[in-house]
User: Fold M20/M25/M40 family metallo-hydrolase from Nocardiopsis tropica.
Amino acid sequence: MGHPVTPSPDSTDALASAGDDALHLARELIRRDSTNRGGGDGDERASAEFTAEALADAGLDPVLLEAAPRRSNVVARVPGTDPDAPALLVHGHLDVVPAEASDWTVPPFSGEVANCPVTGVPALWGRGAVDMKNTIAMVTAVVRHWARHGLRPRRDIVLAFVADEEDSAAYGADHLVREHPGLFEGCSAGIGEGGGETIHARDADGRPVRLYPVGAAERGSAWLTLRAKGTAGHGSRPPRDNAVGALAEAIARIDRHEWPLHLTPVTRASIDAIASALGVDRAPGDTDTAEALDALVSRLGVAGGLIGPTTRNSAAPTMLSAGYKVNVVPGEATAAVDGRVLPGAEDQFAVTMSELTGDRVSWEYAHGSPPVDAPVDSPVFGALRSALLAHDPGAHVVPVCLAGGTDAKVFSRLGIDCYGFSPLAQPAGLDYTKLLHGVDERVPVDGLRFGVRALDTFLRA
Assistant:
């Protein structure tokens, strides 16, 4: 990485055309409903077939792979000019979370372009506009741009646009890694969702500062099933070992628990980079205790949101189930807990959950994926930074650990260093995080054009 990029022919006009193509592709992808309701209830085939056709138009040979009917994945390899260079994975997911049309200003699968009510700028509306059909469209538009102008990247690029990221990845990335690992031969690094968008902050003197977080780590997912057993009986003569009471006590302990600090190298690098970008003075020991760190994060203002959720493990009770009639004491009660685990804190999480659940309640993993991290001093991270600064020179690029998870957890099993990089210019006033899985999801049209330019620069570095 870091090699000079040959300018595209008539680069300004050509990339403007690629931006138009990205908007077109994103609109068409949004119009192909690929809602994933979980538990195997999903259908990505229409989106996958459309994407495969768009890639075939660029002279590629995409393959469609399904772990189950209509749970479609698209994989294609773009050949590079240097056969000795390690390949790069570019992954994204075709599925989207559900959208209730009655809650939206515009129909969620219409792909409508209309002004954003917050910023006044033209935006593309629809489920998947941010998460993450926009990125699949931008990457595909860049590849089609190269085909039109006879351009090639330096290294092979493997495109993997997958199903089921919004649930367990069983029909998507996990299936590909288990059953088709040869498709990713030679990939040493990868990019996907989880970074590259503009965060508008203020420095210590109140001046505006633009930050671009790049994901270099993720908390692991620990989705748990808790189970309490007791003696079933009549509600008028309740047994002493009521399963509902035992489970409720365990859930209350989990909900109240204050997890201790656990700062990973990526999070420490993130704190240092953000504080430096904002000109926030540091004090000795400002990350040594929860109180000191919370005070520091508060001083970082809106940028503190990039750090706060990733300084500890977490466990959120989310579901409860017990009984079938009000006057019958059930013999079993169950609950679900959404746990998130930092790199290096897996043992702490397991030990703590056993302590919190106690003797009466058992727990097991309903689904788990490991935490991951990648080096922030690598040539790849340097190239990501350079690509963003090439198109926004006054900005600051900072590494972050993601509070949630992406398919990076799966692809990392192949030894791939995965980074969150879906470049997107966001105007001030638009809260990017609230649009993820939210009502009226939308992306600025100019943000898509910025993403095309940044991706072209990085992917040909």
